[in-house]
Amino acid sequence: MRFIASKMENFNRNRFRLQTQGADSARPYSIVTLNLPENALLHMKSLRMYMDVATTSVGTGTDLVYGKLGNYGTSLISKVEVYCNGIMLQNGAAEYNTIYRLLKIGRSTQEVDSSLDRCVNNSYISNTDSVENQTLILHDWAGVLNETSAEYLPTELLGSIQIRLTFADTSVLVPKQVGVDIGLPLTTAQASTNAAQISYTISNIYFTIDSVVPDVCYNMLLREQLQSKGEMAINYKEYYT
Q1: Nearest-CA neighbor of 216 among 6, 8, 42?
Q2: 1 has pLDDT over 60
Q3: pLDDT band at residue 234 using 50, 70 and 90 as cut-offs
Q4: In the chain, fewer beta carbons within 10 Å around the N or the C end?
Q5: For residue 7, what pLDDT is reported?
Q6: Radius of gyration over alpha carbons of the chain, in Å?
Q7: Does residue 50 have a pLDDT over 90?
Q8: Residue 4: what pLDDT?
Q9: pTM of the full structure
Q10: In angstroms, rounded to a whole number, what is the distance separating the alpha carbons of residues 118 and 209?
Q11: For residue 82, how many C-alpha atoms fall within 13 Å in the half-sphere facing its CB?
Q12: Each residue of 109-159: pLDDT tens digit?
């Protein structure tokens, strides 16, 4: 075992930049599709999504309402579906952003919230009288993309993995009336009407993921296990709403 452990230290790591299938922009209710690299050993915890997000404002004068992003970028995603060779692995539960929020609250601590989380861009809702124009990076995923019993997935054996993301409607935005602090009621009926019309656009979407090239010892052990047991179990968490 010591020999195997020392041999497994000698591996190469490559990073792929992945483009979406079709457009690299999105709006509310848009669907974005991504194919992960095939014939590779993927480190799933390294999956990152990059995007530029811009919100809009509606109204004039004291009725002007700005669209503000929530305090976590995943709030913009309403559904995540994962397919392996056309078979659905993650069922795309509705309100993925709500599931993620509940998990984040349950796993957070006061120390993490006041230190690490506060150091991250967009970790709290901005109270400024302006629209949002930010670049967000999503790195934490709920379900099969990040919560598996094995951090590394061999697509050489599994086949093609496809991810479909559905973006949320405009209700995930926080309305900010000019001159009124976040969290306080809107002061006029027209401002409430304008708040229902704010929206967002997303551009320059791309992903990155790391691929590992292990020592030949890994492939030998993997194939020996498949020959002896006939299958390889990879457990993962699934959420239903």
Answers
A1: 8
A2: no
A3: confident
A4: N
A5: 58
A6: 21
A7: yes
A8: 58
A9: 0.87
A10: 25
A11: 19
A12: 777 777 767 777 667 788 999 999 999 999 989 999 999 988 888 898 888
In total, the chain counts a number of residues equal to 241
Distances in whole angstroms, Cα of residue 38 to Cα of each of 1, 29, 154: 30, 28, 8
Which residues lie across from 49 on neighbouring strands?
Answer: 138, 207
8 Å CB contact between 43 and 150:
no
Give the integer Cα–Cα distance in Å for 209 and 42.
7
- Residue 73 pLDDT: 83
What CA–CA distances, in Å, run from 139 to 49, 51, 130, 144?
7, 12, 27, 14
Decide: 162 and 33 in contact? Cβ < 8 Å. yes
How many Å apart are CA 69 and CA 20, to the nearest integer? 23
One-letter-per-residue 3-state SS of the chain = CHHHHHHHCCCEEEEEEEECCCCCCECCCCEEEEECCCCCEEEEEEEEEEEEEEECEECCHHHCEEEECCCCHHHHEEEEEEEECCEEEEECCCCHHHHHHHHHHHHCCHHHHHCCHHHCCCCCCCCCCCCCEEEEEECCCCCCCCCECCCEEEHHHHCCEEEEEEECCHHHCEEEECCCCCCCCCCCHHHHHHHCCCCEEEEEEEEEEEEEECCHHHHHHHHHHHHHHCCCCCCECCCCC
198: phi then psi, degrees, rounded to nearest 5? -70, 155
pLDDT tens-digit map of 224-233? 888 888 777 8
183 confidence band (pLDDT: 50, 70, 90) = confident
Residue 51 CB: number of other CB atoms within 10 A? 22
